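Re: [help] complex structure
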Amino acid sequence: MSDTTTEPKSPHLIDRVVIRFAGDSGDGMQLAGDRFTTSSALFGNDLATFPDFPAEIRAPAGTLAGVSAFQVHISDHDISTPGDSPNVLVAMNPAALRANVDALPQGATIIVNSDAFDERNLAKAGYEGDPLGDGSLSAFTVYEVPMTSITTESSKELGVKPRDAERSKNFFALGLISWLYTRPVEPTVQWITEKYAGKELVREANLRAFKAGYHFGETAELFESSYEVKPAVLEPGEYANITGNTAAAWGLIGASLRSTLPLFLGTYPITPASDILHELSKHKHFGVRTFQAEDEISGIGAALGAAFGGALGVTTTSGPGIDLKSEMMGLAISLELPLLIIDIQRGGPSTGLPTKTEQADLLHAMYGRHGEAPMPIIAAKTPSHCFDAVIEACRIAVKYRTPVLLLSDGYLANGTEPWKLPVLEDLPTIDPGFASGPNHVEDDGTEVFWPYLRDEDTLARPWAPPGLAGLEHRIGGLEKSDGAGNVAYDGANHERMTRLRAAKVAGIAADIPLTDVDHEDGAEVLVIGWGSTYGAIAAGVQRTRARALKVDQAHLVHLNPFPADLGDVLKRYKRVLVPEVNLGQLSRLLRAEYLVDALSLTQVGGIPFRAAAMETAILQLIDELAADAKIEADEEGSER
Amino acid sequence: MTDLTDAVPVPLTTRKDWSSDQEVRWCPGCGDYSILSAVQMLMPELGVRRESTVFLSGIGCAARFPYYMNTYGMHTIHGRAPAIATGLATTRPDLDVWVVTGDGDALSIGGNHLIHALRRNVNLTILLFNNQIYGLTKGQYSPTSEIAKVTKSTPFGSLEHPFNPLSLALGAEAGFVARTHDMDRKHMMETFRRAHAHKGASFVEIYQNCNVFNDGAFEQITGKEHRADMLIPLVHGEPIRFGADGQFGVVMDPDGSVEVVEVAAVGEGALLVHDEHRENPGLAFQLSRLSRGPYEPTPIGVFRDVDHEEYGEQMTEQIAAATERRGPGDFADLLRSGSSWTVG
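Output below.
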């Protein structure tokens, strides 16, 4: 900070930065983060985001409980996580500082709204003294900016009441950070102009606050210089920055178009799944029917009823909702009708942590129904992958006439990444293959329709929605006779039907890709994960490789059935590490299925894994193997 | 999906065409048999197609019904048939969707789905077989069992005030609400015919005798020798009057409640004239409360028949309006509906 010249300086080039915007739930931090992300995306950076907000809509202002944060990682190269720890923290009040300061590495930059650091707010945040003055932040570079007062001042002449004017301070912060990281101004100005078109005063106040923030950075001589993160080299094409939930919604529309099945979503609002309903309800011109049911059971029930009628039936939920839907999933398994259940996992048990991520529903997805009730499971691994995962889940559901459970989670649902837009025609076709006529001849020569006469290859039964004469049939939750599908209580038939249902699901393994291993010759450690740990594992693997050490990565999209070669793959490694945001669910399945000593790395803190945690765990395994090898070599030596 | 155009005439059918090949397995003497007969005999008269007809049910004795109908059908899970039917009826407005349920299925485990299907006015014909007992689980009290009822699960008598199914349906503002009973096939057929003709949610309570676990529950009003004095036929536009000689009638009191009177005491002109089409369900609700149970004179017939726009139709209209306004969905446009940018 010795350089105080006012000459305009060219920005410092940096390859990446992680910024966390933090403030009160009502401070608009999600919006500020989101806008910063959008302008970075338009600028061409690779990026990943992590919104982290409380379950309460408006927790008491100024308290730790009310802190809402948005972390964004922008980079000039390919990245896979929103970053382990922020390089920059924007703290709109003492609580935001206190809640986030422990996440900062030494040397990080903190920009605080100094106006909010009064006695009252400090006390609410639990500070006894003022951290800005007591030297406790000496490991960081701290910038004190009176954001509230400058924001209020900037719109004074508009006649906006100070209380209202203050609300624009998130745009001030956005403006300041936009200057600091040389973001284009135009997209944000345009967005504010359009967004608040009907509210002139608000629009003007926000614009002024945004510009005031930008100009403050430029002229206040507080900052040594600004920074620039150059665009990343991405594959040519058209991109959008997309959340997992939007990707899932668009995937459903894509699957509907590719299958020519009308889309029906039956659902009940629940965090963090509701945005799929919100998004789909906007697109009725695709023939989409959205049904906000009276409860979770009705949501999936209506979706199943729609599937019986020949629609692409879908339900979305999270946490407690998946428990409530269990019985209907069992019915769908028994009816053998296509149905998609999307579970946006969150912290449990019970209400748990509604806004925090977890991936602890895997065993529930596998086993959470009475009776032998096998169901295919697909897991999305990144926000944009939710699109592909939905298409794949629909493909399996329709082809095999089965409910499919798709697992996403709060982190994927709300997180974003740039996504190369697909072309509809390149998506897999999904053939509904409805039954068109009788499929069986009785002894007396009459042609009849047997609803449980299976396809020899897929073991799928015919799908015959009402409307076709001659195919009238009754199905239900009672056990059915193999073939004819009439109610049947005899044990031998039940045994056959139970094994057929299991074989049908197991047989899907022949219809999915083999395990995709990111392989390096000589690697003895495999890190295998599923779901949203993908980014952190990939980053941890890259860091390990950057040390000239070898490690392989595999990530499972199909969790039931597993890829056909998975057992062989696992057995190739001396160590198999399974990181999960639960207490070890996939590791348990892998151990049970393949008798491999899968090592579990777990955390359930409501936040995603950090790449550093992955790296540490991988390095430890490599060290162990090296030590083992040394002992072996020594023993061999002494034997000679 | 097959497009069933009117160009192909509805084939003439008989009861046999509507009966499946499955052996009916209710207890001998069960009231369900006569309800099944009434429905199977009615279907050929409705001018509808078997392939466009779907019977859905939940769990309970009544819920076996779909297996016996030679139509499309689904025997679902306990209490959830209205939810499943809602999904089917809203996506397939071309179908006739019937829901067969019982007092436990519809009013206990599935109470929530029932009231919401009625409130939304989903195009369903709901037949509630009320026998005031749990039959399939062998004789526990149900949500319509009378107070103090002694059953397997209430050896000292039930403490619970029963639901009045019609009051509940009217409270949910169902557009079509009616009651009939299993001893009168003609009345059943006429009531079902009306329920089927009504667009939107129709709700029919059928007093049904469970001769094994609750025999004679309705005998005091539906027995041939009692009917004239104990059943009050509701006829639209007619004074509400009953009794072997028409000696009884129903009047409305100044406080809006209704009561049974002797016609001779009040004069014919004082009798309440039944109006099914009254928009306000209040009077129909009062009529549903006229009898405290099947031991007092009890109205049967159509309590309410009011047309409101049907749920699935409205959903279809929203889709048509959105398509009209924005054109049919274009996937490429959808992907670009947020901010998008081009690389390279």
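Chain B touches chain A through 63 residues (CB under 8 Å).
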